[in-house]
Write a structure and sequence with these properties.
It contains 12 helices and 20 strands. It is an alpha+beta fold. The protein binds flavin-adenine dinucleotide (FAD). GO terms for molecular function: D-arabinono-1,4-lactone oxidase activity; FAD binding; L-gulono-1,4-lactone dehydrogenase activity.
Length: 417
C-alpha cells in the first residue's frame, strides 16, 4: 500500500514512509521485514518527535489478530493493544496493572518502547511491568525474551530499534480501587520545602503548575483505598481541598477527566487523568519532559522557577511526577529515583523550541534525561552520555538488526556517537 498522509497524534510530525502496511499475520510481518531495507513500527502515534518515522516501510500492527491471555499474576497481550482496551477485561478477570500513564489511549508496545510513565514514589515506568516480549527482529528471527534472558533489561525500552514487538507479557496484581482528591493553589515553595511529604501522601501524586505564578494550581492525589477511610484535611501545604472536579489543563472541561472528590472506582478509571472515550489533555499541544535525580528536585525547581516568565507564555500546563528507579538500560529512571518535569506546550513549534532549549540549559547541570517520545533539542551526545549502558544498547541493537533496517534518522543521531 502506498503511504497515505500519516501524521502523529499532535499533528506536528508528517511521517515520510514509501509504504504503509498492515500485515494480517506473523508470516506477512516476517516477509515485510525481509523485503524492506528500512522499516519501523508505528504504535498509536502519540510521540511528539519523529522517533517512529521511516523513509522505508511503516508497519501498523492493527490488523494482526488481537489476543489477551489472562493468567494468575501475568497477562500476555498483543503488543498494539491500547492500555484502555486491556484494562477492562483485566479488571473483569480480577486483575490490575500497578500503574498507567495519564491517558489510556496509547499502545502498550509504544509506551514501553519509550519508557512512558505515570507517577508514584514506588512506581517504576510502565516498562517495569514487562515480564516477557515476543517479536520479529531485523534478521526475521522470531525472538522471545523473559526476565531471565541476559539482554532483557536492555531490550524492554528499545525505541523500536530491535524489531517489531508482537506480544508483551505484563505483571499484574489483584484488582484494586482508587480514589482521587485534588488540592488547589498550594505555593510551590511549600511543596518543594518538603517534596517527600507531598509525593508520599498518596500512591500516585501529580503536581500541576504554570510556573508563573509559582503555585501548584492543582495537586492530584490518587490513593489505593477501600471504602470507609476518612476524607483528607481541608487544607494542606497551603492549598485547599477542591470541592468540584477539575481538568489539569486550564480551560479544558473536567468531564474529560476521571472522577475526583474521593469517589472510589476501579484502578483503570482513576489512575489515568483522562478518560478513554474523550480527547485526552488539550488535544492541540506539544509536550516535553525531563527526568532529574530525585536528590536534585529542589535545584531543578529553583532553575525552572527562575525562568518561569519565559516558560509561561508558551505553556498550557506543567506536571511534576515521581518515578522509581529501575534496571532498564534506556529508561530515564535507570538507577535513579527521579522527578519528572513535564511541559504541555501550545501547538506552535517555532515559538516553543527556543523555550525548550532554555529549559534544557536551566536543567543541564542536573544531568536531565529527556522523555524519548517528546520534544527535545539536547545534543544527542549529551543524551547518550546520560545513559551508562548506551554503548551496550547499541551492541544489542546491532545483534538484533545487523543491517540497521530498524534505524531511522532520529535514532542514527544517538547511535552515531
Ligand atoms: C496526550 C498525551 C499524553 C501523554 N501522556 C504521557 C504520560 O502520562 N506519561 C508518559 O511518559 N508519556 C506520555 N505521553 C507520551 C507517550 O506515552 C509516548 O510517546 C508513547 O511512546 C506513545 O505510545 P505510541 O503507541 O503512540 O507510540 P508511537 O509514538 O507510535 O511509537 C513510539 C516508539 O515505539 C515504537 N513502537 C511502537 N510499537 C512498536 C512495536 N509493536 N514494535 C516495535 N516498536 C514499536 C515506534 O517505532 C517508536 O519508536 C503522552 C502523549 C500524549 C499525546
Amino acid at each position: 500500500m502506498s503511504a497515505p498522509r500519516l501524521r502523529n497524534w499532535a499533528g506536528n510530525i508528517a511521517f515520510r514512509p514509501r509504504r504503509y502496511v498492515q500485515p494480517r499475520d506473523l508470516d506477512e510481518l516476517v516477509e515485510i521485514i525481509r523485503v524492506s531495507d528500512q522499516v519501523r513500527v508505528l504504535g498509536t502515534g502519540h510521540s511528539f518527535n519523529p522517533i517512529a518515522d521511516t523513509t522505508g516501510t511503516l508497519i501498523s500492527l492493527d490488523h494482526l489478530p488481537r489476543e489477551v491471555r489472562v493468567m494468575p499474576g501475568r497477562t500476555a497481550v498483543s503488543a498494539g493493544t491500547r492500555y484502555g482496551d486491556l484494562a477492562f477485561p483485566l479488571h473483569e478477570a480480577g486483575w490490575a496493572l500497578a500503574n498507567v500513564g495519564s491517558l489510556p489511549h496509547i499502545s502498550i508496545a509504544g509506551a514501553c518502547a519509550t519508557a512512558t510513565h505515570g507517577s508514584g514514589d514506588r512506581n517504576g515506568c510502565l516498562a517495569t511491568a514487562v515480564a516477557g516480549m515476543t517479536g520479529v527482529d531485523g534478521t526475521c528471527r522470531v525472538f522471545h525474551l523473559t526476565a531471565e534472558s541476559p539482554e532483557f533489561p536492555g531490550a524492554v525500552v528499545h525505541l523500536g530499534a530491535l524489531g517489531a514487538v508482537t506480544e508483551i507479557e505484563l505483571v499484574t496484581e489483584p484488582t484494586f480501587t482508587v480514589r482521587q482528591w485534588v488540592y488547589e493553589d498550594a505555593p510551590l515553595d511549600n511543596v518543594f520545602a518538603d517534596l517527600d511529604d507531598v509525593t508520599s501522601a498518596a500512591y500516585s501524586v501529580s503536581i500541576f503548575t504554570t510556573w508563573d505564578p509559582p503555585t501548584a494550581r492543582q495537586i492530584w492525589l490518587k490513593e489505593r483505598v477501600a471504602a470507609g477511610r476518612p476524607d483528607p484535611p481541608a487544607r494542606r501545604w497551603g492549598g485547599r481541598l477542591a470541592e468540584r472536579d477539575h481538568n489539569p489543563v486550564p480551560g479544558m472541561p473536567p468531564e474529560n477527566c476521571t472522577p475526583q472528590l474521593g469517589r472510589i472506582g476501579p484502578w483503570h478509571e482513576r489512575l489515568p487523568h483522562f478518560r478513554l472515550d474523550v480527547t485526552p489533555s488539550a488535544g492541540d499541544e506539544l509536550q516535553s519532559e525531563y527526568f532529574v535525580p530525585r536528590a536534585a528536585a529542589v535545584e531543578a525547581y529553583r532553575a525552572l522557577r527562575h525562568i518561569g516568565s519565559r516558560i509561561a507564555p508558551v505553556l498550557q500546563i506543567s506536571e511534576i511526577r515521581t518515578v522509581a528507579a529501575d534496571e532498564l538500560w534506556l529508561s530515564p529512571a535507570y538507577h535513579r529515583p527521579s522527578v519528572a518535569f513535564h511541559f504541555t506546550w501550545i501547538a506552535d513549534e517555532e515559538a516553543v523550541r527556543p523555550v525548550v532549549s532554555e529549559v534544557e540549559r536551566a536543567l543541564a547541570p542536573l544531568q536531565p534525561r529527556p522523555h524519548w517520545g517528546k520534544l527535545f533539542t539536547m545534543d544527542p551526545a549529551v543524551v547518550r552520555a546520560a545513559y551508562p549502558r548506551f554503548d551496550d544498547f547499541v551492541a544489542l541493537a546491532e545483534r538484533y538488526d545487523p543491517e540497521g533496517k530498524f534505524q531511522n534518522d532520529f535514532l542514527r543521531r544517538f547511535f552515531a556517537g
